[in-house]
Amino acid sequence: MNLLKSLPVKHTDLIFSQIGYGCMNLANSWDSTPLSSDDYKKAATIIDTALEQGITVFDHADIYMHGKSEEVFSGIWENRSSLRQQLVLQSKCGIRFDNDPHPGDPKRYDFSYLHIMQSVERSLKRLKTDHLDVLLFHRPDALVEKEEFARACNELFLDGKVRYFGLSNCSASQFELLQDWTDEHLVINQVQVSLWHHHLITDGFFVDLKEYTGINDTLNYCQKNGILVQAWAPVAGGIFSKPLDQIEESKRAFVDVVQKMAWNKGVSADVIALAWLLRHPAEIQPIIGSTNPDRIRDSIKAADIQLTREEWYVLTTAAVGNLP
Ligand SMILES: NC(=O)c1ccc[n+]([C@@H]2O[C@H](COP(=O)([O-])OP(=O)(O)OC[C@H]3O[C@@H](n4cnc5c(N)ncnc54)[C@H](OP(=O)(O)O)[C@@H]3O)[C@@H](O)[C@H]2O)c1
Predict the structure, then answer these.
(1) Positive or negative CA dihedral for 85, 90, 91, 92?
(2) Which homologous superfamily does the CATH classification assign to the domain defined by 6-238+284-290?
(3) Torsions phi, psi of 289, nearest 5?
(4) Given this model, what pLDDT does residue 2 score?
(5) pLDDT tops 90 at residue 1
(6) How many other CB atoms are there within 10 angstroms of residue 38's CB atom?
(7) Residue 191 CA: which ligand 1 atom is closest?
(8) For residues 232 and 20, what is the distance between their CA atoms, to the nearest angstrom?
(9) Which of 65-74, 216-225, 235-244 has the lowest mean pLDDT?
(10) Looking at the predicted structure, is the pLDDT value of residue 259 above 90?
């Protein structure tokens, strides 16, 4: 039974499953070790598990495991070419590691026309597909040029290489600025938000207090404009499932609250963390990143849990300390 509903995303005709799968760790390592046939088999098992659970969205980036995560993903097309139309395949560009391409080059963000075009060409080749459903710009580039950004988006769209665009790790005003610069719709903002890294949601409680950082407008902006919020690291690497003695002391009481609620509901602490995200009215889409098929299956149970307002605030209060 498919527990996942689909999320309508404004301006698109794509089917976004309520939970997406992040392919960052799909390959073998963050170095140049070549992919083996076992790596392809392992990736196929992971992707098949996600598909069986009703996941339609697969999130990539040009840099994940230096391109190998995209490459190993392409193994799934074998004997299943019709699968391509059923998926939302997204990738990202804009982060460049140090020494790329020249020794001594620093790590940097790059939304230049040339880099965007080259990055997309390479992603398409590695993914063995002729188009991306969504291209996300990975982290704001402080030196982004209006004409270059607009030209790249326009050409990629007109050439049929990218259907929709989005941003990642952007505030409301960063999003608004880049949307003003391009005629293409920016339909996604992928950000780090979770019960552990909760500030995009909880910052609004502190608007008249000194702890306020002003970043909470991101979710309000997305909700108002029908932009899909994707949550990366939605279970914060499984922190809530760790034994309490492995949790830093100041966070133990918080994690204990999550674990007790999980125990009472007969689910894992990861599931509670995901249910907390799903309860938010912005219809946040967690992008889960586990490479363990059992954990992928387990995550989907979150769609079957509707936290009450009281339960949601118990978790939230545990996360922030006390509400003002
Ligand atoms: N836009 C961005 O800047 C950005 C940044 C980072 C990531 N992302 C995207 O978001 C996706 C998800 O990120 P993420 O991988 O950090 O998310 P996550 O789902 O919060 O964490 C997954 C990681 O936590 C481990 N884990 C989860 N539950 C666990 C448990 N109960 N016990 C032990 N380990 C557990 C997994 O190990 P196992 O594999 O062993 O289960 C895996 O290493 C990525 O794949 C990528 O697509 C985007």
Answers:
(1) positive
(2) NADP-dependent oxidoreductase domain (3.20.20.100)
(3) -125, 15
(4) 79
(5) no
(6) 9
(7) 1
(8) 10
(9) 216-225
(10) yes
Is the C-alpha dihedral spanning 253, 254, 259, 265 positive or negative?
A: positive
Whole-model pTM?
Answer: 0.98
Rounded to 5°, angle at Cα 28 from 22 and 30: 80
DSSP 235-294: TGGGGGGS-GGGS-GGGHHHHHHHHHHHHHHTS-HHHHHHHHHHTSTT--EEEE----HH
* Catalytic residue positions, numbered: 64
Q: How high is the pLDDT of residue 81?
A: 80
* C-beta separation of 102 from 138 below 8 A: no
Question: So what's the pLDDT on residue 254?
Answer: 98
Give ligand 1 pocket residues (Cβ under 6 A). Answer: 22-25, 59, 138, 168-169, 190, 232-238, 241, 270, 287-292, 295
**Mean pLDDT, the chain, integer:** 96
Closest CA to ligand 1's atom 33: 238
Residue 213: what pLDDT?
Answer: 75
306-309 long-range contacts, CB within 8 A, separation 24+: 306/275, 306/279, 307/275, 307/276, 307/279
Interval 137-164 mean pLDDT: 98
Q: Is 66 helix (H, G, I), strand (E, B) or coil?
A: helix
**CA angle 144-232-143, nearest 5°?**
10
Q: How far is the CA of 289 from the centre of ligand 1 (A)?
A: 4
Which pLDDT score is estimated for 210? 72
Rounded Cα distance, 264 and 75, in Å: 41
Q: Which residue has the tokens 């363990």?
A: 292
Exposed e or buried b for every residue in 271-298, given b needs 16+ CB within 10 A?
bbbbbbbbbbebbbbbbbbbbebebbeb
The answer to whether 62 and 123 have CB atoms below 8 angstroms apart is yes
Phi and psi at 314, nearest 5°, equal -60, -45
Omega into 101 within 30° of 0, i.e. cis? Answer: yes
